[in-house]
Amino acid sequence: MKNFARILCIVLAMTMLLSGCKIVLPGTGSVAATYGDGQTISTGEYLAYLYLYFEDTYSSQAPYAQYYGVSDPWDIELPYGEDGKTKLAMDDYITTMAQDAIKRNIVLAQMMKDNNLSYIEADKKDIDKEMSELAENAYLPAGISNENFIKSYTSLMLNQRSTFFGLYGEGGPKAVAKEEIRK
Known about the structure:
It is a single chain. The chain has helices at 2-16, 43-67, 90-114, 121-132, 146-168, and strands at 31-35, 39-42, 77-80, 86-89. It is mainly alpha-helical. Strands 1-2 form a two-stranded antiparallel sheet. Strands 3-4 form a two-stranded antiparallel ribbon. Helix 1 packs across helix 2 (43-67). The radius of gyration is 18 Å and the shape is globular. 22% of the residues are buried.
C-alpha cells in the first residue's frame, strides 16, 4: 500500500509540476502540458513517460537497495545531473527523468521536422513489431491507453537515434566526411 501511495503521488506531482513547459490545467484533465505553439502532451502520454521511467528506475535500483541493506528501495537517493552531485529521492528522480525525456523529445521532434528527417526504418519496424504484441488495454489499470503508451514509447525509443543518424549519418546534412572518421 505504501508503494501504491508513492506511485500515486508521483503521478499527481508529474501532472502538476511539469517544468520547462507552460502548464495548462484544463477542466477535463486531458492535457498535462502545453508547449511551443499550442502543442500538447496528453495526460495519458505523460503517465506513459512516468510509467516507463518508473519501470526502468525501480527495476534497476531495487536490487541494489536490497544488496546494500536498504529495506525500502523508495528510501534511496539517486545522483542526478551531469556531475551527479545532486541527489534525488527515487520518486523525485523518476518524475524529473520523465520530464527531461518529454522536453528532449519535444526538441528532437522539432529537429526532425526542421531537417525533414524520419524514423530509421529498421528501428521503426522493430518497435512496430514489439508494440503489435502489446496486449489489449495492457496499461489501462495505470490510466494509460495503448495508444498513448505506443506514442510515448515510440518517440522515446526512436527520436534520439533517428535525429542523430539523420543529421550526422551518411548522406545527412551534417555528415562526417569518411576521411575524418577514425578506424
